[in-house]
Specification:
Aspartate Aminotransferase, domain 2, Aspartate Aminotransferase, domain 1, 7-stranded mixed β-sheet, 4-stranded antiparallel β-sheet, globular, binds pyridoxal-5'-phosphate
């Protein structure tokens, strides 16, 4: 399950890496291997307590293994350990980051934009909302009630009001409810989520853009999870249309550490108008000296940042260019097909009640039963039984209103559901196996 063959490549590239310091006087670099071996073995022991995240039978939370190219490039970069805060600390890797940013923006139809990598979706959204609030006089931020909880928390940090927009029955933002809020005149920023965390649904961006043209507000797209799906050819037509409207928003967050094959610690924020760089402007008495070129620290909120993240992403984008219909897009298509196939089986099986058809690659379903409370109490037994079958799913607490209202009595506002993020392309080939295990697990409630 763990790829070892590719590790030999590190030895091959070491000589090229070392050549960059050939002009420097030699420094003895011997490492005593035995203590390393002993501590690493103990470390491997401590790591035993994990779910099998890289395996296709791990089909629960939003987790995807980094591609070997990302792992290897990241490790290579650690020999140098660049810091992409300033060109002083991360010379080559800062330039690699700018190339990645150019390509990520181009994926959404942008050119001439501003952006940078950062720790993850939370920091990326924080920066986007910080800029949005600076431009909108700190008026209210609204996002759908299915948006990631980070938006409300970020508004708390920024000290601006936040309000949730109700969702329609399909889990997407209810644009009529949004319009009623806009009529009140106190909304400065709307956040559209392009792939919600729990359900994987895409907010109706086409309609939200139309409202922006009428009411005027800052429009931010949280595509931390779903952004890369813009490269997929066979999205349903509404989803395709909404993704095509990403070019009209003011800022976009996309997380290479979710669907972009990167290790954790790699988020990205993009701004359509590069002049927002003025909000980041600061003087540093000790940082920006080696070049008059742009230092990434001059346009990012975090100071020190791993240049290794940029190196890993650059290598990955070299291997998998962000081109619609290309190899990387085909892998995402397989994830989506796996989700559609699981959805079709659940829908045809009277033991289950399934949410609306997946727009991306997340499937959410619960059990048939008499009431939300009874089903919620039972479903954990199925979840545990799946784990005993070595099938790892996730649980989600979902508003009853998002499931067909004839299915069971809504005797409480929410119902516990099973949730599966089918983020690995291999999930498609493993679907029969996944289904067999779910079927066996169901014997605990039959
Ligand atoms: C839509 C969305 N936004 C933001 C976040 C937060 O991102 P991170 O966990 O990388 O900080 C997530 C995480 O799942 C997400 O799905």
């Amino acid at each position: 399950m763990l790829d070892r063959d590719s590790l030999a490549l590190l030895s091959d590239v070491a000589a090229t890496m070392e050549a960059m310091f050939a002009h420097m006087p030699d420094v003895p670099g011997d490492v005593d291997i035995e203590p390393l071996r002993s501590v690493l073995m103990r470390t491997a022991e401590r790591m035993q307590d994990n779910y099998p995240y890289p395996h296709p039978l791990y089909a629960g939370q939003m987790l995807k293994p980094p591609h070997p190219i990302a792992r290897l490039a990241y490790t290579m970069a650690l020999w140098v350990n660049p810091n992409n805060h300033a060109l002083d600390g991360g010379k080559a890797s800062s330039r690699m980051e700018l190339e990645c940013i150019r390509e990520l923006g181009a994926m959404f139809g942008w050119a001439g934009h501003l952006g940078h990598l950062c720790g993850g979706g939370t920091v990326a959204n924080l920066e986007a909302l910080w800029i949005a609030n600076s431009l909108s006089n700190r008026r209210k931020v609204v996002a759908s009630e299915q948006a990631h909880y980070t938006h409300q928390r970020i508004c708390g940090v920024l000290g601006v009001p936040f309000e949730a927009v109700p969702c329609a029955a399909d889990g997407r933002m209810d644009v009529r409810a949004l319009e009623r809020m806009l009529e009140a005149g106190d909304v400065g920023t709307v956040v559209a989520t392009m792939g919600t965390t729990a359900l994987g649904v895409v907010d109706p961006l086409r309609d939200i853009v139309a409202l922006r043209d009428r009411y005027g507000f800052r429009l931010h797209a949280d595509a931390a999870y779903g952004g890369y799906f813009t490269l997929v050819d066979d999205l349903n037509p509404t989803t395709r249309d909404d993704f095509d409207h990403l070019r009209h928003v003011d800022s976009i967050v996309v997380d290479p550490h979710k669907h972009g094959l990167q290790p954790y610690g790699c988020g990205c924020v993009l701004f359509r108008d590069p002049s927002v760089a003025r909000f980041y402007k600061h003087d540093s008495p000790y940082t920006y000296f080696t070049s008059y070129d742009l230092h990434l620290g001059e346009i990012s909120l975090e100071c020190s940042r791993p240049g290794a993240s940029a190196v890993a992403l650059w290598a990955t984008q070299q291997m998998f260019p962000l081109v619609r219909g290309d190899e990387f897009a085909r892998q995402l298509t397989k994830s989506r097909r796996a989700a559609l196939a699981l959805y079709a089986r659940l829908k045809d099986d009277a033991r289950f009640v399934v949410m609306t058809e997946p727009q991306l690659d997340i499937v959410v379903w619960t059990l048939a039963g008499s009431s939300a409370s009874e089903i919620s109490a039972t479903i954990r037994r199925v979840f545990d039984a799946c784990a005993e079958q070595h099938l790892f799913l996730a649980l989600a607490e979902v508003a009853c209103s998002l499931l067909p209202n004839s299915a069971f009595a809504f005797d409480q506002p929410t119902i516990t559901c099973l949730r599966s993020c089918l983020m690995k392309p291999e999930h498609l080939d493993w679907l029969d196996d996944i289904w067999k295990r779910l079927d066996r697990a169901m014997s605990v409630v039959e």
